[in-house]
Every structure is written in C-alpha cells, then in structure tokens.
Protein 1
Amino acid sequence: MRKVVFLDRDGVINIEPGQYTYQVEKFTIVPGLFDALNILKDKGYQFIVITNQGGISKEIYNHEAVSSVHEYMLEQFRQAGVDVLDIYYCPHHSVNEQCICRKPDSQMLEKAIARYEVDKTKSYFIGDNVTDMGAADNAGVKGIKITANDPLINYLNQIN
Ligand SMILES: [Mg+2]
Ligand SMILES: [Zn+2]
C-alpha cells in the first residue's frame, strides 16, 4: 500500500492570490515547495492533488483552462524530479449544483484512496482551508492545515 501526501492546490502548491487561478501566467509555485516535497519523497511519500475548481461551474473558466494550468504545473514538478500520481478536481459549485466531490465532501479523496491503494493510516492531506480539513476527516486521513501561501517546509514536523 502507498503512503500519500494529498495536496490541495491553490495556496499550497501555488500562490493563492485570493481569487481563482486559471491562467498559466498567474500560476506561481510557492517558494520552496519542491524542497519540501523532495524531503517527503525521500521518506517514501507519493503525491496526489485534490482541488476544488468551482470557477468552472460559475463559468469563469473551463476544463481546458484547468488542463493547461495542470500541464504547466506538472512540467514544473517534472523539472524538480517530483512525480504526481494524479490530480482530482471538482468542477462544481454549491451556488449552482450539489455534488459529493466538492470539499469538504470526500469523494475525490476516496476515489484516489481506492484507485491507488493508499494506506490511510500513513497518509495526510495538506490544505489551507477548513474545507480541506473537513474532507480529510470525512475520508479518514490526517489533515494538516497550513496558512495559505506559507512554505510547506514549515509544517514537515507534523509528518512522520
Ligand atoms: Mg486552497
Ligand atoms: Zn463536485
């Protein structure tokens, strides 16, 4: 079984400017991210991204924009020598429709846990929002709440 560090995207991987991030030009990796992820990688963790992208439901941007941003993100991960097992995103928003994937619901985490045979007892979900912690609780993995845009390295003492 895998041990996984699940990562929220906006505010954890990339700088969250306080609104939706859907343009490659505005996608900026939080400084020091890959130093932290490489330490976790050396400890045997793999990574899966779990992100709400309700801007799709609100028609602020579309699936193609998300794909472009994720390609760009993955290229930077590749250059840093860090693999991402998968990316799950919820395109819904509660103002327009109900779903069971939008965090704090846990369907994205649960799908990933099943598909990648994740050991929940040895896995974590790092996010900057209370909804991330709700999803972690609902899925049964340990949540680590960080301050948005804060370097991950400051929180590694919470991970075995
Ligand atoms: Mg976030
Ligand atoms: Zn959803």
Protein 2
Amino acid sequence: MTPGRFEYFQEVLTDKLSTEYSRLKALDIGSGGGFLAEEFAKKGFAVVGIDPSAVSVETARAHAEAGGLSIEYRVGVGEKLPVDDATFDVAYCCDVLEHVADLDKTISETARVLKPGGVYLFDTVNRTMVSKLVMIKLFSDHLR
Ligand SMILES: C[S@@+](CC[C@H](N)C(=O)[O-])C[C@H]1O[C@@H](n2cnc3c(N)ncnc32)[C@H](O)[C@@H]1O
C-alpha cells in the first residue's frame, strides 16, 4: 500500500508546500514499522515517528539505521504527542485513527504540533462493522 498512498500524499504536498522538502519537518503519528517514515525521509523531510509500541519503535529505528536513514523515533500516543507546539510542516496519521482511544484528543494534539498552515494527511478505514471485525479485531488485536 505504501507506494500508492505516498504517491497521493506527494501530489497534495506538491500542491500545498514547496518541493524543497529538505527544509521541512514531518511527524508520523502511529509510525508502526516505519514504512511511511522512510518514504518521507528519502524525500528529504526531517521525520519524527511516534508509536505506543516500543517493539515497533525499536524495529523501525533498526530498519532506518540499516538503510542509512536518519529518522527520530519516540514512544508515545497520538492523544499526548511527546513533541513541542507548532513544530511540524506536515503531520500524517495512516491506518491509525481507527485504533486510537480518543479521536478528538488525537486530532487536537495534531493541530497543536502543526505549524500554522501545516498540512495534515491521513487515511483510515470506513466506520463499518466489517471494518471493525476485519481491520481492528482480526488484523490488529488478534495478531498482537
Ligand atoms: C495498522 S498500523 C499502521 C502503521 C503505520 N502508520 C503504517 O501505515 O504503516 C497501526 C499503528 O497504530 C499504532 N497505534 C495504536 N494506538 C495508537 C495511539 N493511540 N496513538 C498512536 N498510534 C497508535 C499501533 O501501535 C500501530 O503501529
């Protein structure tokens, strides 16, 4: 999925921001294994990835290091982001919003850490019973 969603995000970023990505900071909320963080880092963004899973953070960190990518990973949750106010040009939250305990807090925290005029990117599943059973219960909770 990563090439497809990143291609779309890049279209939005080209439209909304300069293409001089090397001066820009991006926050990956729920960074998981770091698939998207690495795509953003390869484009030149300074990326910070946040995830509640210490195992995922460690795995993502090791993968980035092995690939020669400089990405900062921290353990934390979307509801209480361990970063300063108005820091990021871009924040993205992909396949994560369906998992957070408090959606409103996660969104307001994201607004807090984005610079004025910053870009927010997200994707999530439709809020249906099938999504809940397959994407959350089966693919996430069950495989933990
Ligand atoms: C389906 S994975 C998506 C990972 C990554 N964003 C991607 O697209 O490859 C969902 C991720 O959300 C994280 N997560 C769960 N609850 C969270 C929360 N409250 N705040 C931030 N991330 C959370 C999980 O630890 C997991 O890494």
